[in-house]
Amino acid sequence: MTESVKNTAAKGKEMLVSTGQTAVAGVNTMSTSAADALNITRQQGSLPSTVSSPPTLDADVIVLGAGISGLAAAAELVKRGNRVLVLEARDRIGGRIDSRIIASEESGKAFRVDMGASFVHGKYDNPIYDMTRELGMTIHYTSPEGEIRILDADGPMDENLANRLGFNVSHTFFDASRTYAQEHNPASSDSLASYVFAGNSPLFDGLDEMIEQGGSSNNASNKNSCWKAKALGRSFSGWTGAALEDVALKWWGFERDTIGPDGMVTGGKYHQVVDHLAGLVSREKKKGEIRLGEKVESVEWCSDEEYVAVKTRSSAGDECSGPTWVHTASRVICTLPLGVLQRDPPKFKPSLPPRKQRSIRSLGYGLLSKIAVRYEKAWWKESDKTTSFFILPREDHVEETMPPCLPEQKAALAPQGVMVQNFVTIDGSAQLVMFLGADYGHAMESAKQEECVEWAHDLFVRYLSPDSVESGTIPKPLGAIASSWSTDPYSLNSYTYIPSAVDVEDGLPVTPLDIADFAVPTWNGALGFAGEHTHQDRYASVHGAYESGIREGKRVGIALEMSRRGEE
Ligand SMILES: Cc1cc2nc3c(=O)[nH]c(=O)nc-3n(C[C@H](O)[C@H](O)[C@H](O)COP(=O)(O)OP(=O)(O)OC[C@H]3O[C@@H](n4cnc5c(N)ncnc54)[C@H](O)[C@@H]3O)c2cc1C
């Protein structure tokens, strides 16, 4: 009935297509050795798609989705002695943790890149940081000297101005706006943009004086520094996943954060974290199983018989054909991403309670996109010094940083700076990774792969080595990949945010309680939810998703232990 994942891993190119991330060169997603070690199965043939009632249950608990939250929940339940079945639509585990291997057809060389999560946010009170230590993973922390460099098409920016802009933008986003939200209790309809781009925003502090006081004033690059500050500010839509006009100021920074600096996983190896958890799930062969390639179509609670039936269909076929299966368990934990619950949910029977439906409908789910470009050698200036470049367009040529396919009405939101990470300083690889949020991300992801890569390469050359534009001496990339999170049917965007909008049905503001509500199980405890969108304090993150999985694993584990002991 099943074939080992070794065969699945061997179909690297097919997996690439099915996961919606297309590489210019060949791609594989999971190391064969890692897959070998795991009890992961891919289905062939079909099982009956009806259930005789009451059935012999396939597992104590079924977990929907093998992202980090699903694997964490499953590992917790297996540790507590339960039989767990994890059902995953993709041909790989990890979900929005997606470590790609990109092979250059021309050179035959391969490289790795994390197309989903790459940062570990905070060192303390962060279980993911602890896990990376346990697994011996290398995390890069940027030194204070190597932080950011602003690249301006108008020419080299005066160092004082660049420092001032860099300070202003990070202070405005991470400190001042949060303090303002706490102290002034803005209306729920006020957006982050209404604070960040207001005339008296700390984003513009000291900029006019710097120009007026001479020194910098003769430098063409320093003209219109407020305009540049705005462009830089807009690049933070990559952080929020949404235009700053759409994010609620009231709840910005409301959450309980981790402590300490952010670090980056080096070498494109974030997958080690999910491989580790999958290993814990399948450590005891008869306890935990992860089944790939099964898209969940319906989840039905048979309350009389006290079990839940989950119907799946092979994700390799189309929606009407292909084998189907029915799996049964006494409890289900749903970790499907918010985007999937919003736009292509399984059929829940009975339907979800109105409060849960409101959370699904009203929370925001934004987009962060990436383009990774790898070269034989680093050719850009300051390749060994600067970790992040911010590319700013010229005021009269805002189209310079606009991705292909940006619709005209969205271009009105321009200008937007673009953040690029220089991996030479992170792990020594000659790789540049561009981050594009919200509209810029959507525009990029609706273009063809080749078009995106060409656009990114041209932009890098124009800003990182302008002298070489004419001579054409910069070598072509070895390999490259652009993300497609917005169209990938199993993510349908990147992560959750709290919008400044009201709910379309009840007209009431969206609040963190809409996230908290996800943590409340339904169907008399038989259906629970985990995933980044269910963690009020740590949504949109790997550590939040992980903690939510542990939370649900514990809740269900305790409930099962109680029922085995005959307790209420
Ligand atoms: C580009 C990008 C960059 C990011 N950067 C960072 C970062 O640097 N640091 C950080 O902390 N966080 C980051 N995040 C967020 C982080 O990756 C996510 O919050 C986290 O991985 C979500 O885990 P999850 O388990 O909730 O969901 P997922 O990982 O999405 O898992 C859900 C699983 O459900 C499966 N699924 C979906 N539909 C079905 C179906 N119908 N049937 C069966 N299975 C289904 C999916 O395939 C998936 O495997 C980033 C996200 C993105 C997209």
UniProtKB/TrEMBL annotation:
GO terms for molecular function: chromatin binding; flavin adenine dinucleotide binding; oxidoreductase activity. Residues 68-555 form the Amine oxidase domain. Gene3D superfamilies: 3.90.660.10, FAD/NAD(P)-binding domain. Its cofactor is FAD. FAD binds at residues 69, 88-89, 296. GO terms for biological process: chromatin remodeling. This is Amine oxidase.
